[in-house]
Design goal:
Layout (H helix, E strand, L loop, with lengths): L1 H13 L10 E8 L10 H6 L1 E7 L5 E7 L21 E5 L11 H16 L5 E11 L1 H11 L2 H4 L10 E5 L7 H6 L25 E6 L8 H14 L5 E6 L7 H16 L3
Helix pairs in contact: 3-4
InterPro entries: AB_hydrolase_fold, BD-FAE-like_dom, GDXG_lipolytic_enzyme
GO molecular function: hydrolase activity
Keywords: Hydrolase, Signal
Length: 273
Amino acid sequence: MVKRSFFWILMICIGIPAFAQEVTYTLEENINYYEDLTETQTDYQKERCKLDVYYPQGMEKLPVIVWFHGGGPEAGEKHIPDGLKEKEVVIVTVNYRLHPKVQHPVYIEDAAAAVAWTFKNIDQYGGDKNKIFVTGHSAGGYLASMVGLDTSYLSKYDIDTNDIAGLIPFSGHTITHFTIRKENGIPGTQAIVDKYAPLYHVRKDTPPMLLITGNREMEMLGRYEENAYFYRMMKVVGHENIELMELDGYGHNMVYPAVPLLLNFVKEKSQGE
């Protein structure tokens, strides 16, 4: 009893709390990210162009992760991947319009509008607009890359893509997306690199990048190899802040084991290391 009392007195005297403060997280759902960006919207735009914000209460200047779901872009719903909750970061998870109700570049434009909304509003949720990281899986990874590499999409909102703190596509196309090729009658095995390909926009001054794919023998249609080529071309033009990670033992559905890599990257870049 004496030792225990001394422990509590010591904690009070030196100002260290006996227990870590519990953080409460809030999920604000179905925010229309076009509402303040455009005066007119279609019914499908109003229905689909929504995002959720998941954030810890009472904290400020936190890193922000914008997450785009996969699925084509022909399917899928906004969600927070396993392993991202309660990590003292703000999560923005986004729905965007889907093929065949729309065709390219509408879903890329939606992704850019969601990122623009984040830059303009995230301080209300304790996020730091200087620490916005854009990521997603498969089609979502492709959208993250396009928004971060093709400067034209965010420039419509007077936002410099290089103000993004980092791009972390999970198993995303670097060639033109197969859905866009399908919309043009081009088979999925025929590689195209045009203005709808991240590879078309290779440049030295992009934000830091972490490319993550599954194992090359288990991935979808050469996804590792196209990321490896993108990585090499970025190195050729002089981009020094890019990494490529191949997750052995995992195929295209490699989100869960990649989440810790994402969080480590966010922590490192947020601290300026």
